Q: What sequence folds into this?
């Protein structure tokens, strides 16, 4: 009886050593995106303190810099939308189906997906908040409309209401 116990124990330990550890890619993706969201919000709020024109400028210049600074060590991140303001914010190919699912309302939660070459993708929705409506609402103040037209002549990112789906934050990172 003791020998059976020893054999089964050795087998169980050997089997456990062969399996990959469980990794919570959603938590990892959320943690990687947290500084982007925090720094972008701080830049927008800082810009708003000087007026909405400055918030637009901050979004135009600071957002790509923040994403670039955090895209290191095999990590890339950004934001995208079904209604782009900046054409440089097109979603990566792997994120497009999730973007479409959020638009359709069939997806509402963040999601992680395994990609090729031991990489992981993670997306989470961006929902319109009241402060967003100054630049993304249905009725823009004239000075805001002029500034947006100046910086983004092909802008599609207006007409939103509080609580609407605005777009996605996305991150791609090495899997473990």
A:
């Amino acid at each position: 009886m003791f020998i059976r116990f020893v054999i089964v124990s050795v087998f169980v330990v050997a089997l456990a050593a062969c399996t990959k550890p469980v990794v919570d890619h959603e938590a990892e993706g959320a943690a990687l995106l947290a500084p982007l969201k925090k720094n972008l919000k701080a830049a927008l709020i800082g810009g708003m303190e000087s007026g909405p024109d400055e918030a637009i400028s901050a979004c135009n210049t600071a957002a790509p810099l923040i994403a670039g600074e955090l895209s290191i060590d095999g990590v890339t991140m950004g934001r995208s939308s079904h209604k782009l303001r900046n054409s440089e914010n097109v979603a990566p190919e792997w994120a497009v189906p999730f973007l479409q699912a959020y638009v359709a309302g069939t997806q509402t939660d963040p999601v992680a997906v395994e990609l090729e070459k031991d990489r992981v993708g993670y997306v989470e929705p961006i929902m319109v908040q009241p402060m967003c409506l100054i630049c993304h609402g249905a009725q823009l103040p004239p000075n805001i409309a002029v500034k947006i037209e100046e910086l983004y002549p092909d802008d599609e990112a207006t007409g939103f209401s509080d609580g609407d789906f605005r777009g996605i934050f996305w991150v791609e990172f090495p899997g473990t």
